[in-house]
Design goal:
11-stranded mixed beta sheet; 385 residues; alpha+beta; 56% helix; elongated; 2 domains
């Protein structure tokens, strides 16, 4: 109990220095949590991928399309349970900053193939009846104040012109990790409009989505699909949904490397600041440690006092930093939600923050700790005036 009292008193002997050190650690932990959350958000699509779904795209790149008629041929391949298709759509809602994911989808199969998007039956029926109907995510509707029956207009960029839609459905996520900020409209509405303006691009699909009868058939079915369209005008690459999502991450691998490096730099900053603080504190108390040794305190007691002070400062800053992370993440989720739909502070990130802080707190006082324990009593007593 005496040791704990000494640790507490020593920690706040220089209140300004200790407070500033705690502040630096709290800010570093907050920044560390944001960076780790950003990495988690980047990988969220991979983690949520279904094991029994495949994605077929043009072998050249995603920027090239394939004939929509491929759907019938894919559906006949053994091991394929359900086939759908979709096209990325780039359009502006009111202002360019209002970005959200938009897809033209096959109305008959898309939502059956994606059960994670929960659409009320009456909404789905209304969507099927009306050509320019659309279905939007719950959080997207909350953001823009949309409701059933509202009419919205998108200004096309890839496909020029003004595209009129009426909201006939609002989907919610099957679980908390489902992206509820997407916008889906009927592929045949896209087809009819493009048939008038860009007929050569009308009957084209961006990707095909396949559900398997057995997830263990993924490699076999993928090879068969690609073999079917070999030497055609639009050859294909078929891969699991997880691999498809990983391709996007590989495109931004340099960014992820930078984020990891910045995370390491933050830990180094924390360690440097804390090591400096502990070095000054131990140097100021050299004579006190010598006196403690003369009255029976051993090296173990000195170790506990110095290490305890270091850990107390570090973990206090960590707790403050993690506590600030929750409201800060909510603010960032509102600002970056369109780009990172699942921008949330996870348990793994919190654990990483505490683990990193614990390591910093344990390693930072290593040098002054060694000097305090190994320093002869006589050298310490010479400092006493």
């Amino acid at each position: 109990m005496l040791i704990l009292r000494l640790i507490f008193k020593n920690t706040f002997r220089h209140k300004l220095r200790t407070s500033l050190t705690i502040l630096v650690i709290a800010i570093s932990v907050l920044a560390f949590s944001v960076l780790r959350t950003m990495v988690s958000a980047w990988y969220s699509g991979v983690e949520l991928s279904s094991a029994d779904r495949l994605v077929t795209r043009n072998a050249i790149s995603l920027g090239f399309t394939m004939p929509a008629s491929y759907k019938k041929q894919i559906s006949r391949i053994k091991g394929v349970k359900l086939t759908s298709y979709a096209n990325w759509f780039e359009g502006i809602y009111l202002d360019e900053k209002n970005f959200f994911v938009k897809f033209a989808v096959d109305p008959e199969s898309y939502f059956e193939l994606h059960p994670e998007y929960v659409v009320p039956p009456e909404h789905l029926s209304a969507f099927m009846r009306e050509r320019n109907a659309c279905i939007a995510g719950r959080r997207l509707c909350e953001k823009y104040g949309w409701k059933i029956g509202d009419r919205i207009t998108l200004k096309g960029t890839i496909f020029p012109g003004y595209w009129e839609f009426v909201i006939r459905g609002i989907y919610s996520g099957r679980d908390s990790h489902t992206n509820e900020k997407q916008f889906f409209f009927r592929w045949d509405y896209r087809y009819e409009k493009l048939k008038l303006t860009m007929p050569q691009r009308a009957n084209q699909a961006g990707i095909f989505l396949i559900r398997l009868t057995d997830r263990n058939l993924a490699a076999e079915v993928s090879a068969e699909i690609d073999r079917t369209f070999r030497n055609s005008s639009a050859e294909t690459i078929t891969e699991t949904e997880k691999s498809f999502q990983m391709n996007f991450i590989h495109m931004s691998e340099a960014v992820l490397v930078i984020i990891h490096l910045v995370s390491v730099v933050l830990l180094i900053i924390m360690m440097t600041v804390l090591a400096n603080t502990m070095a000054m504190a131990v140097r100021e108390r050299t004579s006190e440690y010598a006196v403690l040794k003369t009255v029976g305190f051993g090296g173990g007691h000195i170790l506990v006092m110095i290490l305890g002070e270091s850990l107390f400062i570090t973990m206090t800053g960590c707790v403050i930093g993690v506590a600030l992370s929750f409201p800060f993440m909510r603010l960032l989720a509102d600002l970056l939600g369109s780009y990172f739909p699942l921008f949330v502070l996870t348990e793994g990130t919190v654990v990483s923050s505490f683990t990193a802080s614990l390591l910093v707190g344990a390693l930072s006082p290593a040098v002054p700790l060694y000097r305090a324990i190994s320093s002869p009593v006589a050298d310490g007593l010479r400092r006493i005036v």
